[in-house]
Protein: Gfo/Idh/MocA family oxidoreductase
Amino acid sequence: MEQRKVRWGILGCAGIAKRAVIPGTQQSETGVVAAIASRDESKAKQTAQELNIPIAYGSYEALLNDDSLDAIYIPLPNHLHKEWTIKAAEAGKHVLCEKPVGLNAAEAEEMKAACAKAGVKFAEAFMYRHHPRYAMIKEIIKSGEIGQIRGIHGAFTFNSANNPNNVRFHSFMGGGSLYDVGVYPISAARFILEQEPEAATVHAFFSPEHDDVDMMASGLLEFPNHVALTFDCGMWAAGRNVLEVLGTDGRIELPCAYVSRQNEEDHFFVTAKGERREVKVPYVNQYALQADDFGRSILNGTEPLFDGSDSILNMKVIDACLKSAKERVRVVL
Structure:
């Protein structure tokens, strides 16, 4: 007897959905992409045809009214995440929302509460956490091989500054590099350390050419036990996508820390006792793993690995980072 699969609806035709999340969900064990919606019906139909999605809707409301759908993935601009998460929950749909989950922690709390009230699952789409190499890295740290952690450094930068139509360059839409890519090293440090930061200090470049969003930010997060995350993120800089965990006796380096290389090994490096070794990890589609974690929580009535509580905590840190950058102050969390 064939196992029932989660029927997904995609709320919007964003690049991340078309390029990664939809193909990943289609490769998952637990889900099928059954429908997609856009406010432009022709765009929805074209995307559906390109990605072999059976149903295309010309409005978001029409997709939410489809009783055959179990879960909704939301890749809309950041300022629309709260509105459509709540509407999806009220329509009885489980919600996987693209990061950042909202514009601030208060929005994240509202979204979590709405989903809880409706009795549906709610999670934020941080795909990197589902990659098995992060569990491997945490085991290496716990083994003591690199000693006590002294610091973490993460960077996620790219250059799309010449694209005037980019939604990331509109303040009211929740644009800026902290929202778009700074969330990754911040989330990763919290995940690895299994602790919350105590204070944040961030310096940022708010570009007048890009509606005064932060096009580059560099920050320091103070964690307990004298450990810090230093990070930088940017949308007007050469590309980097790295993470380093520094210990008293060694270090761990991830050359492709958040967005992995498609169809290639997602290796990382461990240096300990003066020797550097490569840890090879066979390619996996982390978007498929993300869909399966969320899908199994629906099918089995369990909780996803990372629920809305984690999203609220991450947004509290982003709130502090933005406050620090705008006011040029150290913010205690």
User: Anything to note?
Assistant: The chain has a mean pLDDT of 96. The domain at 6-126 is CATH 3.40.50.720 (Rossmann fold).
